[in-house]
TrEMBL record:
NCBIfam families: diadenylate cyclase CdaA. The keyword Transferase applies. PROSITE patterns: DAC. SUPFAM superfamilies: YojJ-like (SSF143597). It is an enzyme of class 2 (transferase). Residues 82-243 form the DAC domain. Belongs to the adenylate cyclase family. DacA/CdaA subfamily. Its EC number is 2.7.7.85. This is Diadenylate cyclase. Catalyzes the condensation of 2 ATP molecules into cyclic di-AMP (c-di-AMP), a second messenger used to regulate differing processes in different bacteria. GO terms for molecular function: diadenylate cyclase activity. Probably a homodimer.
Amino acid sequence: MNIQEILNYIRIRDIVDIFIISVITYNCLKIWRGTRAEQLAKGILVVLILTKLSEWGEFYTLYWLLEKIMTWGIVGVLIIFQPELRRGLEFLGRSSSPFRGGVDTQDVVPTVKEVVDAMGSLSRQKIGALVVFERQTGLNEFVETGTRVDGEVSSGLLINIFIPNTPLHDGAVIIRNNRIVAASCFLPLSDSNSISKELGTRHRAGIGITEKSDCLSVMVSEETGAISVAEQGKISRYVDLDTLTTILSKLYAPRLTNQFKFKLGGEK
């Protein structure tokens, strides 16, 4: 059968089918890339290859053992891959809007300015801070670990929250749209081995929360005053105020900053 005959058998629906599978595969790889699931998937692939080789080579005992492992391993995969599966389902459930509720574009510039001013002041004073911006995935389970604030975003309020030895300084501030929802919130720490040893629990918490949701976190180091931004489990360190302004503007109003293409990289 030559290529022309093969092409004659291909229908439009076959092309659409292949396209859909390609999109699903690409997004799965994108979600799993750089996570524990990537390494576990490689391990499962090795087991599958060994199972087929043992069948062909008539190693019956080895084949029986590997087949049982694969049969019962499905349950184990669901348990082990639970964070990645949850992340994938959340990805499918998100709308095109970066926030669940609408954001008044008139409030975008003041909100961003207040946050940037606060981060700049805290950075100069070398006061540690961790601010999380909620997007499509709700963070109520983490809001409940802190103290409800429900206040308008302002630089003065943010600075006062993080002043050392005050009741709310220890923990994270969670911002939803244009309001500070809660302060002193406890976040999950990232267990990634690729994070620099220089980074402490504040940065691990800032990275950890972005591994479990689509939020963005901004951290200020109390040792160096450096500002860092984390998204999708990746962190960019030593971010200047101009870059932070652009990131937050894009976060709140992506259509207003389409010309600026900023992608977080660096460490994970």
